[in-house]
Structure formats: structure tokens, C-alpha cells
Design goal:
Oligomer: heterodimer
Number of strands of chain A: 0
Shape of chain B: globular
CATH topology of the largest domain in chain B: D-Maltodextrin-Binding Protein, domain 2
Radius of gyration of chain B: 26 Å
Largest sheet of chain A: none
Number of strands of chain B: 21
Helix content of chain B: 25-40%
Low-confidence stretches of chain B: none
CATH superfamily of the largest domain in chain A: MetI-like
Structural class of chain A: mainly alpha
CATH superfamily of the largest domain in chain B: Periplasmic binding protein-like II
Number of domains of chain B: 2
Structural class of chain B: alpha+beta
Low-confidence stretches of chain A: none
Strand content of chain B: 15-25%
Number of domains of chain A: 2
Mean pLDDT of chain B: 90
Mean pLDDT of chain A: 86
Largest interface: A-B, 54 and 60 residues
Chain lengths: 313, 533
């Protein structure tokens, strides 16, 4: 196991290097010029050039890359062009909202989708199955921002139950934190519920046809025990895989959700940094997202051993 | 009691205590928040750069008005009024300004505002600002007479001192000397001002929230507020600028009462807001804004004045204004390089222009020797106040005989692209559209600046325009200033530097429980009272 984990972690190094090089080059070759944006609408050419020099953007791309790489290798992600703050500070500041949103969404999705998927599988072909699968199609089809606006209209404007936008830190009170997270979580979880419910249904359906399930029934076990202990556990590997993929996809989802609900998380930071051509921030964020994605996949692979003892690394 | 039971009991008690503590803390926080009057506004952009002298971005200027004060300011009639200044005199030969500061002016750290602070601030501002640079060409030196009085000695009389020190945009904000001594090429890192609000740097969350608190020791002028001038009497405890990038979300938050003001709501959302009884409309600026159609004078065919003149004939303002603003309440056809309705707004020379006379336009295009190479028109797609302009321009240009390559991109890409001097084949450009509210006179209008390489994007180069602008900066008589403005306009028709596409207005929307909103060229938050929800 230790050897496997070491190998997997080592394998991330070339992936990360490729990501770093690609992101750096794509930003530099996109002819984006943060200096013109920083200088403002009425700035003279001389002012823009002055800022360019100040930011080191007048240097050759290779020289800029070498400088940045040297800093990153020491853990220094650089300073944001716009916010005059260390990028690491900006990221740390935005981490809590995004983690809260992502965790809440995953928990909500699993709590809703897995039981629905199991129910749909158990009652295959009945109205329950059709309703669940119909909802799944809707979840897949309606974009996150549309779900967001609809929820906002109903629960915030019409019913005044929940706030429209914003984020409250957990340290400032649990109820306020939860209130502000509920709508974005429901909006974002729609698509994941759909994904997880469909996979759960298919997986459990396959397992329910296996001999050992029939044997379990023959032993006189109740439906609940057969489903939960025998069927669901054996169907868990594809479900866990899809949850893992979901976490990677969530990175894209939080960008939209955080914009719609005005949550100051990493998604919003990414959008702001891209639009402002804030190179150091974009580079650091892509690095972080790539690393997260690689790590989540590793953990998912390792978690298979928990559900299927036959899997060994 | 077994160990298991004991553990369970401890856990339950801990959870209950944590829950009670959380509730108590929440109630305390709620009580504190309720005791304060907080004004929450969504501005047109998130505040990123907090040095309003270093950048020309409007959001930084707006931030400047919150925490800094100015020596002079313009009132609702456009007249220059003293602000931090108590009294000022101009010598008989008009070469010495003697200015005395008001009593009781304090920086946010409690220290008094001095002449030395103001001199250092003027110097730093003048190094960056277009009018400041024009002013400094006439300044011999500054002399601090005492703590509160200073002199500006001029080489010759000029109107640029009062114009510059009272500018609503490109504003000369006063800072403590230690801050103003920062190189004009560097951004400041100390945000102490003497304005009506204190910038809460510890609560500033870029991309999320900017917080200002009322400066309790600020002494407003006795006069009632009028545009940027008069008493800056703050009637709320705290102002928060929330960064809500999505317009629909901002409107929903306003309707739900979570925010109080949206500075620039999208025009297409206005009908929905008009139906709501809790919402009021107001113009920050009665002057409005002017759309600017800018040529790149470095690249063919618009390096030739004939090709640029053709556009004076091909265009009409109504098509543009209808396409982007739509509601005539929020736009005005204005055939002038300067704001219509202001003392220097004139239609001199515009009689047959901007009437879509395609026959005349095609003649001029032919005379210019245009060879049919497609011209690159930059099209901003993501800002509602620009999105529909370029397609209208493309249609009218094609009717005038140009081949147009309209390239669509986000606004920031337009900003980056238009700063490039490269030929079109190497990523350069020919035409772009922007908007400005700095068109009160030829000196402050950056798009009338025809100082070749030194001016902003487009880089027009005309000695006559520059001579007229220089003459204007020396002139202090309004009648003679108007004559010079007309001369500038006539020259800008002959040697086009840009085409004005009309005036437009951006209403501000607020909850009806706010009163005392001031009409001004920049959004200001003093004098506003908030009652209930």
C-alpha cells in the first residue's frame, strides 16, 4: 500500500509540471496585458508601460517563468497584481466558503441521491423508478444558474425564508452560516444528485440480480438488510467513483454557483483573476485545483479497499 | 454510572453548551449590527486598487471620495467651490494663489492636516493626471506659509489650477505628506485620509466586501451638499460595498432588502425594478456619460483625416443610443464634443454631421484612398452598456463603404487590445468604442488630447488641437474659454480624434427607506439617511 501511494504521489509530479508550464504559457501567449487593466480607462501609454515594467511583464517569457518557478519551489506563490496581497493569503481567505459549499453539496447529494437511487433500483419499472429517473433527467438538464435563480425567487424573494446572496463565516455563527449556504448547496447539488442517483440505480440493479442476494433473501433476511448490507455495499465501488468524479467536477460548479450567489470563495476568485488577467493568482489557483483533483482521485482509489476486500494495492 | 454512559453525558452536555454559546454570540452580534446603521451598496465594480491617484479606474476614484477630501469641488451648477479650503485669493496679476485650510481638519489618525501635506499631495497627483500635468507647466513653485496656508506661484496666469484641483474625476485627493511622498509610479500602502469615512482595511475582503466607517471627527462644511461640494454630513455609521458580480442577483438582493443601493443596474432590468413599490430611482450624475467612438490614428486607413471625417457623416447618434440604452429617458442626442447643457457644451460646426449622410461619407472614403482592407472594430460583449454599440457601428460603416472585421471579446480584452500600437496584421486595431464622463472642457477630456505618443490609446497627433488646449488652460474668462472650446471642436471635426455617439444616463436604484441621495458626477455616500428596512 505504502509503495502504491508513494508511486501515485510521485506520478503527480510530471502532471503538475505540465499543468504549470501550460498555464503559464497560455496566459503569456494570450496577449493579455494586466498593466492596461490596472492603469484604468483613461491612462496614457506611458503609464501603462510603467506598470508593465513594474510588474516585470516587459521581461522575456522564459525569464518570467524562471522567476516564478524559483518562487513557487520555495512555496511563494507570488503577489497578486491587483490586490497587492500575497496569493497564498488570498487563497486561504477564500478557502472556507468553497470548502463549506463543496462539502455541504456532496453531503446533501449523497444523502438525497443514494437512497433515491436504491429505491429506483428496488422498484425498477414502477412509478417510483420513473419519477426518480425523471428528476435525474431534470437535474442534468437545467443549468446550475437557472436552478439558483429559481430557488432565489421562491425562497428569498417570495417567501423571505433564506437570504439571496453572500456568505457568513462559521466562526460568526452556525445558523447564519447554514442559512447562507442552503440555497447554493441545493442549486449545486441538483446535477450531482442526478449523477449519483443514476449510477446508484444501475449499480444496485446489477447487484440485486446476483446469486448472493438471492441467497440472502433465502436465508430470510429482511429487504432492508439485504439492500443495505449486501446490495449497497457491493455496489459501492462505482458509486464512490462517481462521487469522486463529482468532487473534481464540483470545481467547475462552484465557479458558477459562487458567482450567482455572490459567495467569496475560490470560484469567484478564479473568475475575477481571469477577467483581470491577474497572472499570479490564476496560476496558483490552477495549480491548487489540479492538485486537489489528483489527490481526490488517489483517495477514491484507496477507498475501494474499504468496500471491496479483494482490491489490494 | 458506566464509562460509556459518562462519555455520552459529557458529549451531550458539550453539544448543548456549544449550542447555547453559539446562540448567545449570534444574538450579541445581531444586537450590535442592529444598533448600527449600515448602508450596503453594490458598486459597478469590485475595488481592487486603493490608490485613486495611481489609477484612473472609476471605482478607485469613488473609494477616494469616501476616505479623502479635496481642496476644491464643483457644485451642481458646475461652479468651483472651496472644500478643505477656508479662504483663497488670487493676486492681481493672477500669478499667485494663496490658500488657507479650514480649521479642524484632521487625518484619520488624529493628526492635523497641514499645508505641507497638501503641497505633497498636489505634486503627486499632478505627476499622474492630465490636467495636473498641464497645471504644472504653469507652476513656478509651492510655498508653505504656515501650518494652514500655502501659496502656488505661477509662471503665468492659468485656469488649470482651479480646474485641476476641483476635478470630479482624476481628482486631486489630499493625503498626509508621508503618504503623498510615495513615488507617483508606486501605489500607496497607507490609507489614511481626512475624508468623511475611514477605510477599514482589516475588514476589506477583495472580491467580497469593502467597509467604511463614519469618521466621527470629520467637520463638514456648513453649506448644504451640492454635487461634490458643500457639507459632507455622514448620517450612517457604516457603509459596505458588496461585490455582487451578477446583476440579477444584485437586483434580487435589493428586492429582498439585503442591500440598499445598486450603483449601475443593467438598463434591461429597470422595467422590473420600476414595478416595485419599495424601489426608488435616482441619477448620480445629471451630466451623464458620453459614448466615444475612437480611431487608431497610427494605422491605415484612419491615419488619414479624410477617412475619419467620413465617419462624422456616416454615423447618427440615435441608432447607437436606441440599440444600447433603449429608453429615451436615459439617453440624449448631443451633437457636441462636450456635455450638452453645460456652460461649454456647444454644437458649433455640427450642423450637417451625424445624420447618416452615406453619399457624402462614401465620397470621403474614396478621397481617402481606402483600399478595401477590412478594418478591425473591437466589440465588447460582456458589458451591457457597450455590447450593442459595435454591431450598429459595423452596419453604418459598411454603408459608408468600409469593410469591417468586428472582433468580439470581453471588456478587459478590449482594454488590453486597444493599448497596443501594433499594426492590424500584428494584433493591432482600427476602431473601438468606450464611454467617458470627463468632457466638461478640452483640458480634462483625455480623448481630445492630441499629443501623439503621449496621449491615451488612438494616439492622435495634432499641434493645432494641442495649441488650443494650451490656450484654454491659460484662459480664465468664461466667454473667451467658450470661443476656444468652439475652436477646438471645429478643429476636431476637421482633424477627427473621436466621434461622440451621444449622451447616456445611468440611473441608480435604491430602497425607498433611503433619503438624501445626492446627484453628483461620482457616487457619494454622505447626507444619506436610512430608516427602517
Amino acid at each position: 500500500m505504502f509503495r502504491y501511494i508513494s508511486k501515485r504521489i510521485l506520478a503527480t509530479i510530471p502532471v503538475m509540471v505540465m499543468v504549470v508550464v501550460l498555464v503559464f504559457l497560455m496566459l503569456r501567449l494570450s496577449s493579455a496585458d494586466p498593466a492596461a487593466i490596472i492603469a484604468g480607462d483613461n491612462a496614457a501609454t506611458e503609464q501603462i508601460q510603467g506598470i508593465r515594467v513594474k510588474l516585470g511583464l516587459d521581461q522575456p517569457v522564459l525569464a518570467q517563468f524562471a522567476t516564478w518557478l524559483a518562487k513557487v519551489s520555495t512555496g511563494d506563490l507570488g503577489e497578486s497584481f491587483f490586490f497587492k496581497k500575497q496569493v497564498s493569503e488570498l487563497i486561504l481567505d477564500r478557502l472556507e466558503p468553497t470548502l463549506s459549499l463543496a462539502l455541504c453539496t456532496i453531503i446533501l447529494s449523497v444523502l438525497i441521491a443514494v437512497p433515491l437511487g436504491v429505491l429506483a433500483a428496488y422498484y425498477t419499472g414502477t412509478w417510483i423508478d420513473r419519477v426518480v429517473m425523471g428528476l435525474a433527467v431534470l437535474g442534468f438538464s437545467i443549468p446550475v444558474f437557472v436552478v439558483g435563480y429559481l430557488l432565489m425567487y421562491v425562497f428569498s424573494i417570495e417567501l423571505s425564508w433564506l437570504p439571496v446572496q453572500g456568505y457568513q463565516r462559521l466562526s460568526d455563527g452556525f445558523w447564519g452560516w447554514l442559512q447562507k449556504l442552503l440555497l447554493p448547496c441545493f442549486a449545486l447539488s441538483a446535477v450531482y444528485c442526478a449523477l449519483i442517483a443514476r449510477i446508484t440505480r444501475t449499480s444496485v440493479q446489477e447487484v440485486l440480480g446476483e446469486d448472493y442476494v438471492r441467497t440472502a433473501h433465502a436465508k430470510g433476511l429482511t429487504n432492508r438488510i439485504v439492500l443495505m448490507r449486501h446490495a449497497l455495499r457491493n455496489a459501492a465501488v462505482p458509486i464512490v467513483t462517481v462521487i469522486g468524479i463529482g468532487i473534481a467536477l464540483l470545481i467547475g460548479g462552484v465557479v458558477v454557483t459562487e458567482s450567482v450567489f455572490s459567495i467569496p470563495g475560490l470560484g469567484r476568485l478564479t473568475v475575477d483573476a481571469v477577467l483581470a488577467r491577474d497572472f499570479p493568482t490564476v496560476q496558483a489557483l490552477v495549480l491548487l485545483f489540479s492538485l486537489t483533483s489528483v489527490m481526490v482521485n488517489l483517495f477514491i482509489d484507496l477507498s475501494y479497499t474499504l468496500f471491496d476486500p479483494r482490491i489490494r494495492y | 454510572m458506566s464509562i460509556k454512559t459518562l462519555r455520552r453525558t459529557c458529549l451531550t452536555v458539550s453539544i448543548v453548551i456549544a449550542g447555547i454559546a453559539s446562540l448567545v454570540l449570534q444574538r450579541a452580534a445581531l444586537a450590535q449590527a442592529q444598533a448600527q446603521t449600515i448602508l450596503r451598496a453594490v458598486m459597478h465594480s469590485d475595488l481592487k486598487i486603493v490608490d485613486p491617484v495611481w489609477t484612473t479606474a472609476y471605482i478607485s476614484r469613488n473609494h477616494g471620495y469616501m476616505i479623502y477630501d479635496t481642496l476644491f469641488a464643483t457644485d451642481a451648477l458646475g461652479a468651483v467651490q472651496p472644500q478643505m479650503i477656508d479662504t483663497y485669493q488670487l493676486s492681481e496679476d493672477k500669478t499667485v494663489y494663496t490658500m488657507t485650510l479650514r480649521d479642524g481638519l484632521l487625518w484619520h489618525d488624529g493628526k492635523p492636516v497641514t499645508s505641507e501635506d497638501c503641497i505633497a499631495s498636489i505634486k503627486r497627483w499632478a505627476a499622474r493626471d492630465v490636467v495636473g500635468q498641464a497645471m504644472m507647466a504653469h507652476v513656478k513653485d509651492f510655498v508653505a506659509v504656515d501650518q494652514k496656508t500655502f501659496k502656488i506661484n505661477l509662471k503665468e496666469p492659468t485656469a488649470a489650477v482651479m480646474l485641476g484641483l476641483s476635478r470630479a474625476s482624476g481628482t486631486a485627493f489630499m493625503m498626509p505628506k508621508r503618504v503623498a511622498d510615495t513615488s507617483p509610479q508606486e501605489q500607496i500602502s497607507d490609507y489614511i485620509g481626512s475624508g468623511p469615512f475611514v477605510f477599514k482595511t482589516n475588514e476589506w475582503k477583495p472580491g467580497s466586501k469593502v467597509v467604511y466607517e463614519k469618521f466621527a471627527q470629520y467637520k463638514p462644511r456648513a453649506e448644504p451638499p451640492s454635487a461634490m461640494a458643500g457639507g459632507k454630513d455622514v448620517k450612517v455609521d457604516r457603509v459596505e460595498w458588496l461585490a455582487i458580480a451578477d446583476q440579477q442577483t444584485a437586483v434580487s438582493a435589493l428586492l429582498a432588502g439585503e442591500i440598499d443601493i445598486i450603483e449601475q443596474p443593467s438598463h434591461d432590468l429597470l422595467p422590473m425594478l420600476k414595478k416595485n413599490a419599495n424601489i426608488q430611482f435616482s441619477d448620480w450624475s445629471s451630466l451623464g456619460n458620453q459614448y466615444v467612438f475612437r480611431f487608431n490614428s497610427l494605422n491605415k486607413p484612419f491615419d488619414n483625416a479624410r477617412a475619419r471625417q467620413a465617419i462624422w457623416y456616416a454615423f447618427n447618434q440615435e441608432d447607437f443610443l436606441k440599440a444600447v440604452i433603449g429608453d429615451p429617458d436615459y439617453y440624449k442626442v448631443c451633437k457636441s464634443m462636450f456635455f450638452c447643457g453645460t456652460p461649454l457644451g456647444t454644437t458649433k460646426g455640427m450642423e450637417n454631421l451625424l445624420e447618416s449622410n452615406f453619399k457624402k461619407a462614401r465620397e470621403l472614403v474614396k478621397e481617402s484612398g481606402y483600399d478595401g482592407t477590412p478594418i478591425v472594430l473591437l466589440h465588447s460583449t460582456d458589458r451591457h452598456v457597450y455590447a450593442n454599440l459595435a454591431p450598429v457601428a459595423k452596419s453604418l460603416l459598411e454603408k459608408a463603404g468600409f469593410k469591417v472585421d468586428m472582433q468580439s471579446m470581453d471588456w478587459q480584452s478590449v482594454v488590453v487590445r486597444r493599448a497596443k500600437k501594433d499594426p492590424v496584421a500584428k494584433g493591432g486595431w482600427n476602431l473601438t468604442i468606450t464611454s467617458t464622463n470627463n468632457v466638461l472642457n478640452p483640458l480634462e477630456s483625455s480623448y481630445l488630447n492630441a499629443a501623439c505618443e503621449k496621449t491615451t490609446f488612438g494616439w492622435p497627433c495634432d499641434a493645432q488641437i494641442e495649441k488650443l488646449r494650451d490656450d484654454f488652460s491659460r484662459e480664465t474668462d468664461l466667454t473667451k474659454q467658450l470661443a476656444l472650446v468652439e475652436a477646438v471642436q471645429l478643429r476636431a471635426i476637421e482633424y477627427p480624434v473621436y466621434i461622440p455617439l451621444g449622451q447616456w444616463y445611468q440611473p441608480m436604484v435604491a430602497r425607498k427607506n433611503l433619503s438624501g441621495l445626492i446627484k453628483a458626477p461620482a457616487p457619494v455616500f454622505w447626507n444619506i439617511t436610512k430608516t427602517g428596512k
